[in-house]
Specification:
By secondary structure, the protein is α/β, with parallel strands linked by helices. The chain has 2 domains: 199 residues, 5'-nuclease (Rossmann fold, 3-Layer(aba) Sandwich); 66 residues, 5' to 3' exonuclease, C-terminal subdomain (DNA polymerase, domain 1). The protein has 12 helices and 6 strands. It has a 6-stranded mixed β-sheet with strand order 3-2-1-4-5-6, sandwiched between helices. The longest helix is centred in the first third of the chain and has 15 residues. The relative contact order is 0.17. The mean pLDDT is 94.
Length: 282
């Protein structure tokens, strides 16, 4: 059994700006949402059976209370924000498990889903579909991996170490030191990627650093580490079989018409018809 976990927020952003570039700056009202639906449906057509999608229903999270500069919905295109809820509703109608996050982030949902699935001995592999470096902390050997749709690269634990110079479990420490501009925290001044990897290789996690290494910046580094550490305690599902795709609901046809993508319903029905009577373990 292979479980596929999709970063719906990343996919929505990717499709939104990709379509805008292709259309010379003109936006289709639901174009990005339809793009994500097509992406997930293609995964299913290619054999994915156990699928879950996480989204940031609200951009802000508990992390905004910890750090004033943490990312918010300010500056995000209204035309993009307006497609989150239609996407979530459409995915549900398509029969796909959706986690629309409010207090936590989509990344926390993906991390939580990976942990729940990894506790099931029937699960051979968990693929987290996102290039987001935050999710590298969830990688375990070659059982929990990251998949970058654009480059087709699959990043296992060896791949994480090759890219960042540290093991997956030290990614929160690494990000705390180098910062993450997309999430809105700067890291520790004067420490770059190579320096961070060197320090973590030598001393281990930030809590184990000798006091003189970071000096007065140690508390700030620990705060940034808290921001970078993904939550794995979201109670998203009780059993992996809840993620099994069993075909679109009758409502999906109506939703597709509303989105201006009536062909999606027929594609979903064809994908379901091609499945064996008993869902495969893929």
């Amino acid at each position: 059994m292979i479980v596929h976990l999709v970063d719906g927020t990343y996919e929505l952003f990717r499709h939104f700006y990709g379509l805008r570039r292709a259309a010379a700056g003109r936006d289709r009202r639901f174009g990005a949402a339809v793009g994500v639906l097509n992406t997930v449906l293609q995964m299913i057509a290619d054999g994915a059976t156990y699928v879950g999608v996480a989204t940031d229903h609200v951009i802000e999270s508990f992390r905004n209370e910890l750090w004033a500069g943490y990312k918010t919905g300010e500056g995000v295109e209204p035309a993009l924000l307006a497609q989150f809820e239609p996407l979530e509703d459409a995915l549900r109608a398509m029969g796909v498990a959706v986690w629309a996050m409010v207090e936590l982030e989509a990344d926390d949902a993906l991390a939580s889903a990976a942990k729940i699935a990894s506790n099931d001995p029937r699960v051979q592999q968990i693929c987290i579909w996102t290039p987001d470096k935050d999710l590298s902390q969830c990688v375990v050997g070659d059982r929990i991996v990251q998949v970058d749709r654009r480059s087709k690269a699959v990043r296992d634990a060896h791949g994480v170490r090759s890219k960042f110079g540290v093991d997956p479990e030290l990614i929160p420490d690494y990000l705390a030191l180098v910062g993450d501009a997309s999430d809105g925290y700067p890291g520790i001044r004067g420490i770059g990627a190579k320096g961070a990897a060197s320090l973590l290789t030598r001393y281990g996690k930030i809590e184990c650093f000798p006091p003189e290494v970071l000096g007065d910046h140690q508390p700030l580094a620990l705060l940034f580490k808290k921001l970078a550490t993904l939550r794995t305690d979201a109670k998203l599902f009780a059993d992996v079989v809840e993620l099994e795709w069993r075909g679109p609901t009758a409502e999906f046809g109506i939703v597709c018409e509303r989105l201006g993508a009536s062909d999606l319903f027929a594609r979903a029905e064809r994908a379901h018809a091609r499945r064996p009577k008993r869902a495969g373990l893929s």
